[in-house]
Amino acid sequence: MTEQNALQLRDNAKYQLEQIKDIESGIDYLNKVKAIETWAKAEKKDAELQNMIAEQKIRTQRILGNLIREGQARGEIASQSSGNRNLEFHTGSLNAPRTLSDVGLTAKQSHVFQKIADIPEETFEGFISEKKQAVDNAVSELTTAGILHYANTGAHVSNNAGDNE
After folding, report:
1. What is the Cα–Cα distance from 135 to 143, expressed in whole angstroms?
2. Angle of helix 23-42 relative to helix 47-73, nearest 10 degrees?
3. Measured distance CA(19)–CA(26) in Å, rounded
4. pLDDT (mean) for 141-146
5. Could you give the CA distance from residue 48 to residue 10 in angstroms, rounded to a whole number?
6. Three-state DSSP state, 93
7. pLDDT tens for residues 62-115?
8. Which of 13-22, 41-50, 140-149 is most confident?
9. How far apart are CA 61 and CA 112, in angstroms?
10. What whole-number distance in Å separates Cα of residue 68 and Cα of residue 114?
11. SS3 of residue 90 by DSSP
12. Closest by alpha carbon to 155, among 164, 145, 147, 143?
C-alpha cells in the first residue's frame, strides 16, 4: 500500500461505492479499503485520512448489508434461519441458495453489516457528519487562531479543580 492508494480511494470514493453491484465486488472493495486502513494506521497517518478510510469502510459495509438482505429475499443467499442450505429442485436441477461462507462472509459479518444497513439514512449520515466535524475541529485547533482561543479561554484539563459544581 502507498499514499497513492489512499489518495485514489479519497478521489474516487463515491464512484467506487456506486460500482458495488453485487456481494463479490463489495467484498473485494471492502478488502481493498481494509488494506489501505491497515497501511494508514501502521504509517501513523493523520486522523483526517484515517477517518476518510473508515467512512469508506462503513459505507461499503452498509451496501453489503443491503445486498445480503436483498439476496436472501430473492432466495439467492441462505438466511441464518434457513440453516446451511435449503435444497430445492427446479425443472430437474439441484438449485440451492449460496451460504454466507460461499460468498466469503461469516455470520457475524453479515449480522453487523445488516445492522449498519438498518440504521435510518438520516441517522447514518448525521453520525458520519458529526464525526467528520469533530476531526475538522480538532485539526483546525492547531492554528494561530486556535492557540489564541485557547490562551483566552484558559480551557485545559489541568485547570480543572476536580470539584463538582
Report:
1. 14
2. 160
3. 9
4. 66
5. 11
6. strand
7. 999 999 999 999 999 988 654 444 434 343 345 789 999 998 999 999 999 999
8. 13-22
9. 8
10. 7
11. strand
12. 147
**What are the grid coordinates assigned to 154, written together?**
484558559
Query: Residue 122 is placed in which grid cell?
Result: 438520516
Give the position of cell 486502513.
37
What is the average pLDDT across 24-29?
95
98, β-bridge pairs: 77
Rounded Cα–Cα distance for residues 18 and 102 (Å): 24
The pTM is what?
Answer: 0.73
- Close Cβ partners of 85 (under 8 Å, ≥ 6 residues apart): 78, 96, 97, 99
The crossing angle, in degrees rounded to 10, of helices 23-42 and 3-11 is 130
What percent of the chain stands above pLDDT 90? 48
Q: How many residues does the chain have?
A: 165
Write the pLDDT tens digit of every residue in 36-58. 999 988 988 888 888 889 999 99
Block residue for cell numbers 438466511: 79
Counting Cα atoms < 13 Å in the Cβ hemisphere of 73 gives: 6
Give the residue carrying C-alpha cell 462503513: 58
